Amino acid sequence: MEIKQISQFPRATVEQLLAAIPFYKTVKQQDLWQFEVLLQHSRVVNFAPGELVLKCGEVDTWLYFLVKGQLAVFVGEDIADAEAINYITPGEVFGDLAMLVGDQRTATLVADSNCRQIMAFATDFRVFGELDDFRTIKLATKLIYYRNTVHNLRWKLEVYRMKYPGYELANDHHKVKLYKGRPGTAEELHSLHQQAVQLARLLVSWNHQFGMLSFPTGTAPNPQLLASVE
Fold first, then answer.
1. Residue 192 to residue 199: CA distance in whole angstroms
2. pLDDT class for 210, splitting at 50, 70, 90?
3. How crowded is residue 164: how many other Cβ atoms within 10 Å of its Cβ?
Protein backbone atom coordinates (compact mmCIF):
# COMPACT_ATOMS: atom_id res chain seq x y z
CA MET A 1 0.00 0.00 0.00
CA GLU A 2 1.27 3.44 -0.92
CA ILE A 3 -0.49 6.40 0.68
CA LYS A 4 -0.11 9.84 -0.87
CA GLN A 5 -1.41 13.11 0.48
CA ILE A 6 -3.52 15.29 -1.79
CA SER A 7 -0.86 18.00 -1.64
CA GLN A 8 1.53 15.71 -3.55
CA PHE A 9 -0.62 15.97 -6.68
CA PRO A 10 -1.16 18.89 -9.05
CA ARG A 11 -4.59 20.42 -8.56
CA ALA A 12 -5.63 19.52 -12.09
CA THR A 13 -4.84 15.86 -11.42
CA VAL A 14 -6.96 15.81 -8.26
CA GLU A 15 -9.92 17.41 -10.00
CA GLN A 16 -9.61 14.95 -12.87
CA LEU A 17 -9.63 12.01 -10.46
CA LEU A 18 -12.77 13.29 -8.72
CA ALA A 19 -14.67 14.35 -11.84
CA ALA A 20 -16.21 10.88 -12.17
CA ILE A 21 -17.35 10.66 -8.52
CA PRO A 22 -20.82 12.28 -8.17
CA PHE A 23 -20.49 13.24 -4.50
CA TYR A 24 -17.22 15.15 -4.84
CA LYS A 25 -18.23 16.57 -8.21
CA THR A 26 -21.48 18.01 -6.82
CA VAL A 27 -19.83 19.43 -3.69
CA LYS A 28 -17.21 21.17 -5.84
CA GLN A 29 -19.94 22.71 -8.00
CA GLN A 30 -22.00 23.94 -5.05
CA ASP A 31 -19.45 24.89 -2.40
CA LEU A 32 -15.77 25.13 -3.22
CA TRP A 33 -14.85 25.74 0.43
CA GLN A 34 -16.48 22.46 1.48
CA PHE A 35 -14.68 20.72 -1.37
CA GLU A 36 -11.38 22.00 0.06
CA VAL A 37 -12.31 20.79 3.55
CA LEU A 38 -12.95 17.30 2.22
CA LEU A 39 -9.63 17.33 0.38
CA GLN A 40 -7.85 18.19 3.63
CA HIS A 41 -9.21 14.97 5.14
CA SER A 42 -8.55 12.80 2.11
CA ARG A 43 -5.73 10.88 0.52
CA VAL A 44 -4.92 8.75 -2.50
CA VAL A 45 -4.06 5.11 -1.91
CA ASN A 46 -2.29 2.88 -4.42
CA PHE A 47 -2.34 -0.90 -4.06
CA ALA A 48 -0.06 -3.47 -5.63
CA PRO A 49 -1.69 -6.26 -7.67
CA GLY A 50 -2.78 -9.02 -5.30
CA GLU A 51 -2.50 -6.81 -2.20
CA LEU A 52 -5.06 -6.96 0.62
CA VAL A 53 -7.19 -3.79 0.57
CA LEU A 54 -9.77 -4.38 3.31
CA LYS A 55 -10.06 -7.34 5.66
CA CYS A 56 -13.21 -8.85 7.06
CA GLY A 57 -13.53 -8.00 10.75
CA GLU A 58 -11.60 -4.74 10.59
CA VAL A 59 -12.97 -1.46 11.89
CA ASP A 60 -11.92 1.90 10.47
CA THR A 61 -13.40 5.23 9.42
CA TRP A 62 -12.25 5.56 5.83
CA LEU A 63 -14.67 5.83 2.93
CA TYR A 64 -13.22 4.80 -0.44
CA PHE A 65 -13.95 5.36 -4.10
CA LEU A 66 -12.11 3.23 -6.63
CA VAL A 67 -10.44 5.40 -9.26
CA LYS A 68 -8.39 2.90 -11.27
CA GLY A 69 -8.14 -0.87 -11.48
CA GLN A 70 -10.39 -3.51 -9.98
CA LEU A 71 -10.93 -5.14 -6.59
CA ALA A 72 -11.96 -8.74 -5.97
CA VAL A 73 -14.48 -9.35 -3.18
CA PHE A 74 -14.32 -12.43 -0.94
CA VAL A 75 -16.56 -13.61 1.88
CA GLY A 76 -14.89 -13.95 5.29
CA GLU A 77 -11.25 -13.76 6.32
CA ASP A 78 -9.86 -17.04 4.99
CA ILE A 79 -9.54 -16.50 1.27
CA ALA A 80 -6.66 -18.86 0.53
CA ASP A 81 -8.74 -21.25 -1.60
CA ALA A 82 -11.77 -19.04 -2.10
CA GLU A 83 -13.15 -17.59 -5.31
CA ALA A 84 -14.16 -13.96 -5.66
CA ILE A 85 -17.91 -13.44 -5.41
CA ASN A 86 -17.88 -9.99 -6.97
CA TYR A 87 -15.68 -7.21 -8.34
CA ILE A 88 -15.53 -3.49 -7.65
CA THR A 89 -14.81 -1.29 -10.64
CA PRO A 90 -13.81 2.39 -11.05
CA GLY A 91 -16.32 4.89 -9.71
CA GLU A 92 -17.80 2.51 -7.14
CA VAL A 93 -17.75 3.24 -3.42
CA PHE A 94 -16.54 0.72 -0.86
CA GLY A 95 -16.21 0.82 2.90
CA ASP A 96 -19.54 2.62 3.33
CA LEU A 97 -21.85 -0.17 4.45
CA ALA A 98 -19.93 -1.05 7.60
CA MET A 99 -20.06 2.57 8.75
CA LEU A 100 -23.76 2.86 8.05
CA VAL A 101 -24.66 -0.26 10.01
CA GLY A 102 -22.07 0.42 12.71
CA ASP A 103 -20.32 -2.89 12.25
CA GLN A 104 -17.00 -4.44 11.26
CA ARG A 105 -16.01 -5.01 7.66
CA THR A 106 -17.88 -8.08 6.52
CA ALA A 107 -15.95 -8.86 3.34
CA THR A 108 -12.33 -9.05 2.31
CA LEU A 109 -11.19 -7.00 -0.69
CA VAL A 110 -8.07 -7.75 -2.70
CA ALA A 111 -6.49 -5.75 -5.52
CA ASP A 112 -6.99 -7.68 -8.74
CA SER A 113 -3.71 -9.34 -9.72
CA ASN A 114 -4.53 -8.78 -13.40
CA CYS A 115 -4.50 -4.98 -13.04
CA ARG A 116 -1.32 -2.97 -13.45
CA GLN A 117 -2.55 -0.04 -11.35
CA ILE A 118 -5.11 0.01 -8.55
CA MET A 119 -5.90 3.43 -7.08
CA ALA A 120 -8.54 4.62 -4.61
CA PHE A 121 -9.52 8.04 -3.31
CA ALA A 122 -10.23 7.91 0.42
CA THR A 123 -11.85 10.37 2.83
CA ASP A 124 -11.80 10.01 6.60
CA PHE A 125 -15.49 9.98 7.47
CA ARG A 126 -14.76 11.33 10.96
CA VAL A 127 -14.68 14.81 9.41
CA PHE A 128 -18.47 14.54 9.06
CA GLY A 129 -18.83 14.45 12.84
CA GLU A 130 -22.20 13.83 14.44
CA LEU A 131 -25.19 14.01 12.12
CA ASP A 132 -26.40 17.35 13.54
CA ASP A 133 -22.94 18.90 13.80
CA PHE A 134 -22.57 21.37 10.90
CA ARG A 135 -19.49 23.24 12.10
CA THR A 136 -17.09 21.55 9.70
CA ILE A 137 -19.29 19.77 7.18
CA LYS A 138 -22.37 21.82 6.38
CA LEU A 139 -25.92 20.59 6.21
CA ALA A 140 -25.95 21.02 2.43
CA THR A 141 -22.86 18.84 2.01
CA LYS A 142 -24.25 16.11 4.24
CA LEU A 143 -27.47 16.20 2.24
CA ILE A 144 -25.50 15.69 -0.96
CA TYR A 145 -23.72 12.70 0.54
CA TYR A 146 -26.80 10.98 1.91
CA ARG A 147 -28.90 11.66 -1.19
CA ASN A 148 -26.22 9.96 -3.28
CA THR A 149 -25.93 7.11 -0.79
CA VAL A 150 -29.66 6.44 -0.65
CA HIS A 151 -29.91 6.60 -4.45
CA ASN A 152 -27.07 4.10 -4.91
CA LEU A 153 -28.42 1.68 -2.29
CA ARG A 154 -31.94 1.76 -3.71
CA TRP A 155 -30.59 1.18 -7.20
CA LYS A 156 -28.59 -1.88 -6.11
CA LEU A 157 -31.56 -3.34 -4.28
CA GLU A 158 -33.86 -2.70 -7.23
CA VAL A 159 -31.45 -4.60 -9.47
CA TYR A 160 -31.71 -7.55 -7.08
CA ARG A 161 -35.50 -7.32 -7.03
CA MET A 162 -35.72 -7.42 -10.82
CA LYS A 163 -33.32 -10.35 -11.01
CA TYR A 164 -34.92 -12.36 -8.19
CA PRO A 165 -38.54 -11.14 -7.84
CA GLY A 166 -39.59 -14.25 -5.93
CA TYR A 167 -37.01 -13.95 -3.16
CA GLU A 168 -38.33 -13.03 0.29
CA LEU A 169 -36.24 -9.83 0.50
CA ALA A 170 -37.10 -8.67 -3.01
CA ASN A 171 -39.57 -5.93 -2.11
CA ASP A 172 -38.38 -4.98 1.36
CA HIS A 173 -36.61 -1.83 0.16
CA HIS A 174 -39.97 -0.48 -1.02
CA LYS A 175 -41.05 -0.49 2.62
CA VAL A 176 -38.35 2.06 3.50
CA LYS A 177 -40.25 5.33 3.50
CA LEU A 178 -39.22 8.18 1.24
CA TYR A 179 -38.93 11.73 2.58
CA LYS A 180 -41.86 13.95 1.57
CA GLY A 181 -41.16 17.06 3.63
CA ARG A 182 -39.41 20.32 2.83
CA PRO A 183 -36.05 19.74 1.08
CA GLY A 184 -32.77 21.15 2.32
CA THR A 185 -33.62 20.79 5.99
CA ALA A 186 -32.21 18.90 8.97
CA GLU A 187 -35.44 16.91 8.89
CA GLU A 188 -34.58 15.68 5.40
CA LEU A 189 -31.07 14.80 6.55
CA HIS A 190 -32.40 12.66 9.40
CA SER A 191 -34.79 10.92 7.04
CA LEU A 192 -32.03 10.23 4.50
CA HIS A 193 -29.73 8.91 7.20
CA GLN A 194 -32.43 6.59 8.49
CA GLN A 195 -33.17 5.40 4.95
CA ALA A 196 -29.47 4.77 4.31
CA VAL A 197 -29.08 2.69 7.46
CA GLN A 198 -32.18 0.60 6.71
CA LEU A 199 -31.18 0.06 3.08
CA ALA A 200 -27.61 -0.80 4.02
CA ARG A 201 -28.81 -3.43 6.49
CA LEU A 202 -31.05 -4.88 3.81
CA LEU A 203 -28.18 -5.00 1.33
CA VAL A 204 -26.02 -6.74 3.94
CA SER A 205 -28.80 -9.31 4.38
CA TRP A 206 -28.88 -9.98 0.63
CA ASN A 207 -25.13 -10.53 0.55
CA HIS A 208 -25.10 -12.74 3.62
CA GLN A 209 -27.80 -14.95 2.13
CA PHE A 210 -26.47 -15.61 -1.35
CA GLY A 211 -24.61 -18.81 -0.49
CA MET A 212 -27.23 -20.37 1.75
CA LEU A 213 -29.06 -23.53 0.76
CA SER A 214 -32.46 -22.29 1.91
CA PHE A 215 -33.29 -20.45 -1.30
CA PRO A 216 -36.15 -21.90 -3.31
CA THR A 217 -35.07 -23.27 -6.69
CA GLY A 218 -34.47 -20.50 -9.17
CA THR A 219 -34.43 -17.69 -6.60
CA ALA A 220 -30.93 -17.87 -5.15
CA PRO A 221 -28.90 -14.73 -5.93
CA ASN A 222 -25.97 -15.23 -8.27
CA PRO A 223 -22.77 -14.40 -6.34
CA GLN A 224 -21.35 -12.61 -9.37
CA LEU A 225 -24.17 -10.07 -9.22
CA LEU A 226 -24.01 -9.23 -5.55
CA ALA A 227 -22.55 -5.97 -4.30
CA SER A 228 -19.72 -6.13 -1.81
CA VAL A 229 -20.36 -5.82 1.91
CA GLU A 230 -17.56 -3.72 3.32
1. 10
2. low
3. 21
